[in-house]
Amino acid sequence: MTHSGFAANDRAAPPSSPPSSDPRPASSLARPRLLLPALLLNLLIASGTFLVAKETLREFPPLPLAAIRILLATALLWPAQRLITPDVRIAAGDRKRVFLLGLLGVALNQGLFLLGMRWASVSHAALLYALTPSFVVLFGMGRERRPTLLQVTGIALAFAGVFTLLLHRGLRFETASLRGDLIVFVAVISWALYFVLGRDVSRRYGSLPVTAQAMLGGALAVLPFAWIGLGDFHPAAITLKGWLGLLYLAWLTSGLNYVIWFWGLQHLKPATVALITNLQPIVAVAMAWVFLREPLPAGFVLSTALVLGGVWLTQWNALRATAAALGPSRGG
Residues 6 or more apart from 236 whose CB is under 8 A from it? Predict the structure, then answer.
């Protein structure tokens, strides 16, 4: 799973950190000096996820890879949550909601992402995940305040960018690429639903406990389907590169990267985190060009301008507040 940062408005932002004993708001607390470098590392890991997934899928079938990845990530996050927040327990009435979050944000998102990456290019997948903020605003309609005209314009521009992307490469030339794009597109929808449906429960218990529990629920949901593709899975044939790719996806993308993301939300406004992580498509495409020699798709510059321009419009009100949060650190 990748962490596409967003803050369409204060209500449509990623789940905030659990309440602190410090009466000051999180944005006013002393910011660790290593926080912004850590968020840049988060950006590199998240962008690299698309490349690593593409290469690891050359050796692993998608569903077994997804199942093993989720199990390894659960083995990391579950004990980490018990260590960091040992007193937090999910109430019985919220456990069905958390399991649904695991189904959406873990099983479906990660499973469909890996399945789609068999055919989708790195550049297409990264740009599609940049749509997450637009979907969050759309799915939040009726639950919260109405989107502004600026946000509606941003959503329209973002989806126009994706249509342009599919038109240039998928609809005209490559059926396989289009198939991969559409599967990743559904994965993005499930990822956005995870944020919208998990917002309230994350505010009650904190992001880390909810994510650890959702990861466990996702592992239980994906296990019955993990046998699909096992006939093509030959562990003895997996190279060191393949196993390292699996560990990257499980422990860096779904483990360390989440810890950094969660840490960032404790000390910075969600819009500040979004300002950095919204660079993910550009960084991912640059990495794919350097390391995989993946050519820039036709129309990608126009599509990127439309999608990122639209995403920034949906977040404009929140992003105006980032200048203060990105000011000099007040602590060590």
Answer: none
What type of residue sits at position 150?
A: L
Give the residue from 134, 114, 125, 129 showing the smallest Cα distance to 170. 125
Two tokens, residue 125: 């997948």
Task: Give yes or no for a contact between 331 and 36, defined as CB atoms under 8 angstroms apart.
Answer: no
Asked if the structure places residue 34 within a domain, the reply is: no
* 138: amino acid identity, one letter: L
Amino acid symbol at 121? S
In angstroms, the CA 70 to CA 51 distance is 18
> How far apart are the C-alpha atoms of 252 and 110, rounded to whole Å?
14
CB 138 within 8 A of CB 238: no
Is there a domain that residue 161 lies in? yes
Contacts of 210 (CB under 8 A, 6+ apart): 15, 90, 98, 101, 198, 201, 202
Output phi, psi for 141, to 5 deg: -60, 135
Tokens representing residue 299 in the block: 């129309």
Angle at 171 between CA 294 and CA 192, to 5 degrees: 75
Query: Which of 231-234's residues contact partners 24+ apart within 8 Å by CB, and which partners?
Result: 232/61, 233/60, 233/61, 233/64
pLDDT of residue 262: 65
Segments forming the whole domain that contains residue 246: 44-325
Tokens, residue 235: 């562990």
Distance CA 85, CA 307 (A): 38
Residue 180 lies in a domain: yes
- Asked if residue 9 belongs to a domain, the reply is no
DSSP state of 8: S
Question: Does the pLDDT value for residue 1 go beyond 70?
Answer: no
How far apart, in whole angstroms, are the C-alpha atoms of residue 194 and residue 13? 12
- Whether residue 25 is predicted with pLDDT greater than 50 in this model: the reply is no
| Residues 7 and 265 sit within 8 Å (Cβ to Cβ) | no
The dihedrals phi and psi of 144, each to the nearest 5 degrees, come to -135, -170
CA distances from 134 to 61, 153, 240, 241, 295 (A): 31, 10, 39, 36, 27
- What's the number of domains the chain is made of? 1
Q: Which of residues 160 and 297 earns the better pLDDT score? A: 160
What's the CA gap between 31 and 46, in Å, rounded?
22
